[in-house]
């Protein structure tokens, strides 16, 4: 096992990146950028769809409440008068 009091040796001079690794990093970065843009586009479309659905539901609900308030046929309904048999 490692000694807890001793730090690992780090060689600073050997950390150079060659041209192939740089090209690979650029390729991965471009693919990641395309993926992020696609996810942002999907998120925007999902938000637009959710907004349209919510607007439709609220509109239908408001219209149904408004149309029920316009119905007056039950307001004019009078109870039949009771006839006394005396």
Automatic annotation (TrEMBL):
<keyword id="KW-0812">Transmembrane</keyword>
<dbReference type="Pfam" id="PF09813">
    <property type="entry name" value="Coa3_cc"/>
</dbReference>
<keyword id="KW-0472">Membrane</keyword>
<dbReference type="InterPro" id="IPR041752">
    <property type="entry name" value="Coa3"/>
</dbReference>
<dbReference type="GO" id="GO:0005743">
    <property type="term" value="C:mitochondrial inner membrane"/>
</dbReference>
<comment type="subunit">
    <text>Component of 250-400 kDa complexes called cytochrome oxidase assembly intermediates or COA complexes.</text>
</comment>
<keyword id="KW-0999">Mitochondrion inner membrane</keyword>
<keyword id="KW-1133">Transmembrane helix</keyword>
<comment type="function">
    <text>Required for assembly of cytochrome c oxidase (complex IV).</text>
</comment>
<dbReference type="GO" id="GO:0033617">
    <property type="term" value="P:mitochondrial respiratory chain complex IV assembly"/>
</dbReference>
<protein>
    <recommendedName>
        <fullName>Cytochrome c oxidase assembly factor 3</fullName>
    </recommendedName>
</protein>
<dbReference type="InterPro" id="IPR018628">
    <property type="entry name" value="Coa3_CC"/>
</dbReference>
<comment type="similarity">
    <text>Belongs to the COA3 family.</text>
</comment>
<feature type="domain" description="Cytochrome c oxidase assembly factor 3 mitochondrial coiled-coil">
    <location>
        <begin position="32"/>
        <end position="80"/>
    </location>
</feature>
<feature type="transmembrane region" description="Helical">
    <location>
        <begin position="47"/>
        <end position="66"/>
    </location>
</feature>
<keyword id="KW-0496">Mitochondrion</keyword>
